[in-house]
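Re: beginner question about structure tokens

> Can someone show what the tokenized structure looks like for a real chain? I only ever see the sequence side.

Sure, here's an example I had lying around. Input first:
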Amino acid sequence: MGGEVLSASGATVIPTWIPTPGCHLPLTLGEGAAILARRSRIASAGKGNLVPRFLLVFLVAALLLLAACGNASDATPAPADPLALVSEAAAAIRGADTFRMIVDQSGPAYLIDTDFGSVAFRRADARYAAPGALQASLAVLAFGARLDVDVFAQGADQWFRAPLWTGDQWLKATFAPGFNPEVLIAQDGGFQAAVDAARDLTVVGETQLESGQNVIHIQGRADGPALDGLLAGLIAMQGEVVVDVFIDRDTQFPARFVLTETVAGEDEPRIWTLDILDINAPVQLDNPEATPEAAS
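And the corresponding structure tokens:
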């Protein structure tokens, strides 16, 4: 960009600067030329003015260029790579020593088969401690009534307790086949498997969770079975699932997953909301192996 101006000798010159990327001249060509011409008339009319006209021309030109480049820092940043963001988030949480996960389920019931019959999953409040221990308090529906069940898993070993079933004593038995907290942070399972299975990822934008946490919202799709590890194998998903990931803008840890699952024969989807909290905070688990009354 340049404006046609007069040199000190009266000849026409054209400024030859080229604004750098991100520089936006705040004046039009006509406005810039008018300013330069006005400065030239002032310089020629002033008695005793020792500033040459050509110096005024280039001073004004320099000021225009500086003003144009002043907004370079406001240039629009390159779009974020959604795959890079979710990959970084998965790597971050896999490296965590502890975290808490709250899982809420809505829509069609999800049934878990147990030795005491089928129960409908509604909510879980789980605490994970590396390298592979997890304790969860589950809210399930059994025979139409709410039942609270505590589940502990160390690797593939499981214990559970419930007032109605075990007299609130730990029982070493399989509560849910395939439930294994080691899957959560496995190199080819859990969070990493979810990332590897994701497709059609897009950055929806930035938003704020109810807690006030500022997050980046990314949406994609994945095949249901590839997402089972996000819940340590406690549940098994089916079909294609819409995946919404919310990543903390400051820490890059995942803050929330929303999994929307289409259920055959149902008019509404089954929705799983996973909130990840208290990352690397101290945690105390009730290890049944250290409890004298734990039964086998």
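Each token stands for a local structural state, so reading them left to right follows the chain. The chain is about 20% helix and 35% strand.
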